[in-house]
UniProtKB/TrEMBL annotation:
It comes from the Bacteria. Residues 397-455 are annotated as: Disordered. One of its GO terms (biological process) is signal transduction. NCBIfam families: prc. Residues 404-418 have a biased composition (Basic and acidic residues). GO terms for cellular component: outer membrane-bounded periplasmic space. Keywords: Hydrolase, Protease, Serine protease, Signal. InterPro entries: ClpP/crotonase-like_dom_sf (IPR029045), CtpA/B_N (IPR055210), PDZ (IPR001478), PDZ_sf (IPR036034), Peptidase_S41A (IPR004447), Tail-specific_protease (IPR005151). It comes from Chromobacterium sinusclupearum. Residues 1-25 form the signal peptide. Residues 84-152 form the PDZ domain. This is Peptidase S41. Belongs to the peptidase S41A family. One of its GO terms (molecular function) is endopeptidase activity.
Amino acid sequence: MKKIAWLVAGAMAGGVLTLSMQALADKEASPLPLNELRTFAEVFSLIKQSYVEPVDDKKLIDEAIKGMLTGLDPHSDYMTPDEFKELREGTQGEFGGLGIEIGAEDGLVKVVSPIEDTPAQKAGIKSGDLIIKIDDTPVRGLSLNDAVKKMRGKPGSKVTLTIARKNETKPLVFTLARAIIKTKSVKYKMLEPDFGYVRIAQFQEHTAEDLAAGLQKLYKDNKQPLKGLVLDLRDDPGGLLNGAVGVAAAFLPKDKLVVYTEGRTPDAKMRLTATLQNYARQNGTDPLAKLPAEARNVPMVVLVNGGSASASEIVAGALQDQKRAVLVGTQTFGKGSVQSILPLGSQGGIKLTTARYFTPSGRSIQAKGIVPDVVVEDATLTAADQALRVREADLENHLANPNGDDKPAKTAKPEVKPAPKPVAVPVQQQDKGKPQDNPDDAGFGPREPNVKNDYQLSQALNVLKVQQILQKRAN
């Protein structure tokens, strides 16, 4: 017997996903607790005999499995064959649905963030919204996988979401048309001469390759080496583990440690370095083959916030620990556990938490997150918006931090106070030829890189310019 282990760090905020094979024949089965199983059999029998309506055996067993897994932590779950297929589709960057990253809260489904340029984002679904009904089905009691299954469907078909939003006296009703969700993971542009910008919305199969191609174009368009680069990981919910390692490897020296995992079993312990074998795609080619050599040394700022989770936290933590980049923004989500997807023959599979991951210096970010070097709040968010931001530590039954510290990390760095809310410049008043006229802007969605309207981005650019000044003085 063999298993396909999909290592996932984050179902609710995206995740970290990789593929491996391992034998199960030599693994010893744990002894079964006979007394507890007798109780289970007794409850099963009583339901079959006395429940108000007949219940199918498979339904009872399936629900028992779901309860056993979901009671462990927010990310363990039971998956049907269709749900396993949907998981794979999501990592390939294309699937049919609404475009919402979701989590669980008090038996309801909570919106972590809408994906850029999707029906959900265009309709006005917001981070922090509680989905209380999908069509005519109340959400309370549904697993996350069941909720996802009901929201996904044939492109063009419609689904109605009933949503509870803070400060709204009545539920909001949105009727959305499902679409093919094509998530473009890497977007880029020049912020101004000599300073480039790259945004990663999610880590997918081609992310490292697309990053290398994007950096190559930025260097070509600038016609000389960049003086600084902003890597934007804000609201990036995660994705493929090898994609995260590949992105980190694009900026780190060869063989530098990116992340390691610790678990109870030998196969749950990994050390992933900036080495081709740790981020190469299945065909064995190097996705960073087109990477400009100067990219490994360009001064960098990494932007993060409370929506940066899993794979994006791996990259941010690695670049911070290796002293490769300055982190700017706000504390990250804190998703530091690893899930294995274990198939159950033709009956789907289970998603089981098997390990925690750690940054190169040994930090666990589980239920804690990464604290940036320079804390800069988002000037567009109100206090109510900040209160709605959900993090790993807010989730019921979340795993504890192995260092025994689930409280938000503290930093001795001075906090940069938010600027007044920016006023958007009307299009007709913008000068031609400025960065916002760059054709590469197409598809950026709500995270349009404009230093005039994005206070965190403007501060990141300032940090890069200060680095230039300090470097000149040192020379």
